[in-house]
Amino acid sequence: MSELNAVVTGGAVRIGRAIALRMAVAGWNVCIHYGQSEREAKQTVSELELLGVKATCVPADLNQPVSAAKQVFQHASDKLGAVSCLINNAAIFREGTLASTTELEWDAHFETNVKAPFFLSQEFARQCRKGGSIINLIDWRGTHPVPGHVAYAQTKSALVAQTRLLAQELGPDIRVNGIAPGAILPPPGKGQEVLETRAVRNPLRRVGAADDITRTVMFLLESPFITGEIVHVSGGEHLAAGKSYGA
Fold first, then answer.
1. pLDDT at position 245
2. How confident is the model at residue 147, as a pLDDT?
3. Is the dihedral of CA 73, 218, 226, 207 positive or negative?
4. In the prediction, which pLDDT does 247 show?
5. Known catalytic residues?
6. What pTM was estimated for this model as a whole?
7. What is the pLDDT of residue 246?
8. What local confidence, expressed as pLDDT, does residue 236 receive?
9. Is residue 125 part of a domain?
10. What is the distance between the alpha carbons of residues 80 and 29, in angstroms, rounded to a whole number?
11. Exposed (0-12), middle (13-18) or buried (19+): which is 143, by Cβ within 10 Å?
């Protein structure tokens, strides 16, 4: 079995699941963190094991970031051994303006999207050997905020800063990078047509796919001289938010 062990938060569904599967193909053993998606997590573990790697899953509430981080890494260490990669993928994404955002919504976004990655990174750094890697899933709105998801956008901007700060603090032993997706998967409960309306907002005039993110994850893992970078995988949507390239 491989000695490459990873933790993927939110790894049971959507982009997190795609990342876990792609890492398994490359020989990584994977610990999937999940919140409420127990059935999907166990199914994904079965798929990972069929690829010939070790896999496990662990529930943890990221609204309790410190205890969740300890729980995730204790489980990963017990089941897989020392972890050398952390993918901070789990996040919440809810609409809200200055007028409509409540304190509860604000706190929920910051607990899950900023505080949890921080304390997961702290726990990872305590047990990681030289050569470790953290990859944070951000959003192009983290570097180019636009109205409509005011709490969410601010958390992703904070995660950009966290990525760059931790890259400095944790080097040379651990590299820290971020991926900022654009239109990749529709929000839960929404159809593909929601993404298609965004295609005209980027220079490539199309939407992306989960494979675009997983390829970028592998690129960063295989690039030992890159740290502190935010790689936009958005078709260029971040270059001119709100501009139409359709005409």
1. 46
2. 80
3. negative
4. 36
5. 152
6. 0.93
7. 44
8. 85
9. yes
10. 7
11. middle
Q: Give the chain's length.
A: 247
Predicted pLDDT of residue 231:
97
Q: Is residue 14 part of a domain?
A: yes
pLDDT under 50: residue ranges of the chain:
244-247
The single residue listed with the structure tokens 């990859």 is: 135
Query: What's the token pair of residue 172?
Result: 């040379």
Contact 89, 10 (CB under 8 A): yes
What order of strands is seen across the sheet that includes strand 230-233? Answer: 55-59, 29-34, 5-8, 85-88, 132-137, 174-181, 230-233
- C-alpha 152/C-alpha 139 separation (Å) is 10
Structure tokens at 70: 């300890």
Contact 53, 22 (CB under 8 A): no
Report the CATH number that the domain containing residue 159 is assigned in CATH: 3.40.50.720
Report the domain count for the chain. 1
What pLDDT was estimated at residue 79?
A: 97
Helices (H), the chain: 14-25, 38-50, 65-79, 103-110, 116-127, 150-170, 192-196, 210-221
Residues facing 205 on adjacent strands: none
